[in-house]
């Protein structure tokens, strides 16, 4: 074996050890009879570690979850294109893990994680063009805050183990997010007090139907953000270190 290959393997091993030391993720054995309870506390602890992100290992922060831009296509009830930017999802790092269900083998993993949070904020800049809701124009641009109260979320992850650089890593095959909440409050900021008042009235008076029509489209944003975070973790730390036998 050449010296170059040996040095490369050494540096890879050192980086993995250093990564584990810095992140200090709690591990849960596949064979643990109380594995789900172990995972519940391990994931809760991981939220604290990842709250501000770990730039050294390219792990994005959970507080807030950020996305530069997203386009929501026209659909039933909200028949105009929504161009979103500077998207922030705030407070997910403060969620409480209530329940974990897992199926873990040597080559596959499935997790179902239920969490709750008193308040989740969804903030973004928007551009609405040729936009009407219930016969009233809502065209324009500005920033909106959606406040979800008493938020319950279920996150499901599935993946398969792949070989990479002499180690085994989890590759996600599916990520699904679903959530419910007791109430949502829309707060618009356009720089025009009268327009803010109008938009707040339209969206808050009709929020149940608006949210029902937009639910699946907003879920796409959640799925994208959670996939990014989970993939960053699973591609960094070998499967056998996270879930030893």
CATH architecture designation: Super Roll
How many whole angstroms does the radius of gyration measure?
21 Å
The helix content is 25-40%
* Chain-averaged pLDDT: 89
Strand-residue fraction?
35-45%
Number of β-strand runs? 9
Distance between the termini: 31 Å
Query: How many domains?
Result: 1
**Helix vs. strand class:** alpha+beta
Q: For the record, what is the CATH homologous superfamily label? A: TULIP domain
- What is the CATH C level class, in words? Alpha Beta
The largest sheet, given as strand count, sense and whether it forms a barrel, is: 7 strands, antiparallel
Give the SSE string: HHEEEEEEEEEHHH
Q: How many helical elements?
A: 5
Low-confidence stretches: 1-22
By CATH, the topology is Bactericidal permeability-increasing protein, domain 1
What overall form do the CA principal axes indicate?
A: elongated
Pfam families: JHBP
Signal peptide: 1-19
InterPro entries: Haemolymph_juvenile_hormone-bd, To_sf
Keywords: Signal
Structural write-up:
The chain is α+β, with helices and mostly antiparallel strands. The chain has a single domain (3-66, 88-124, 145-242), classed as Super Roll (Bactericidal permeability-increasing protein, domain 1). The chain is 33% helix and 40% strand. The protein has five helices and nine strands. It has helices spanning 3-23, 35-50, 193-205, 207-234, 239-242, and strands at residues 65-72, 82-90, 96-104, 108-128, 132-133, 136-137, 140-164, 167-180, 183-189. Strands 1, 2, 3, 4, 7, 8 and 9 form a seven-stranded antiparallel beta sheet that branches. The longest helix has 28 residues, at 207-234. The protein is elongated, with a radius of gyration of 21 Å. It starts with a helix and ends with a helix. 17% of the residues are buried.
């Amino acid at each position: 074996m050449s010296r170059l290959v040996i040095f490369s393997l050494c540096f890879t091993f050192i980086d993995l050890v250093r990564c584990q030391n810095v992140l200090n993720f709690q591990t849960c054995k596949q064979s643990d009879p109380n594995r789900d309870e172990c995972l519940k506390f391990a994931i809760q602890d991981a939220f604290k570690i990842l709250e501000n992100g770990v730039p050294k290992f390219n792990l994005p922060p959970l507080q807030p979850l950020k996305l530069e831009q997203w386009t929501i296509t026209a659909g039933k009830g909200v028949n105009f294109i929504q161009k979103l930017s500077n998207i922030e999802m705030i407070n997910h790092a403060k969620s409480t893990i209530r329940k974990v269900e897992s199926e873990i083998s040597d080559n596959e993993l499935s997790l179902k994680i239920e969490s709750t949070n008193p308040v989740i904020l969804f903030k973004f800049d928007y551009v609405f063009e040729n936009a009407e809701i219930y016969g009233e124009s809502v065209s324009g641009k500005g920033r909106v805050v959606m406040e979800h109260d008493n938020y319950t979320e279920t996150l499901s992850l599935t993946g398969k183990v792949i070989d990479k650089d002499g180690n085994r890593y989890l590759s996600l095959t599916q990520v699904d997010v679903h959530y419910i909440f007791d109430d949502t409050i829309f707060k618009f900021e356009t720089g025009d007090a009268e327009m803010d008042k109008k938009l707040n009235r339209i969206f808050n008076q009709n929020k149940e139907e608006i949210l029902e029509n937009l639910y699946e489209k907003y879920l796409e944003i959640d799925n994208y953000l959670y996939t990014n975070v989970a993939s960053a973790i699973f591609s960094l730390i070998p499967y056998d270190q996270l879930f030893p036998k």
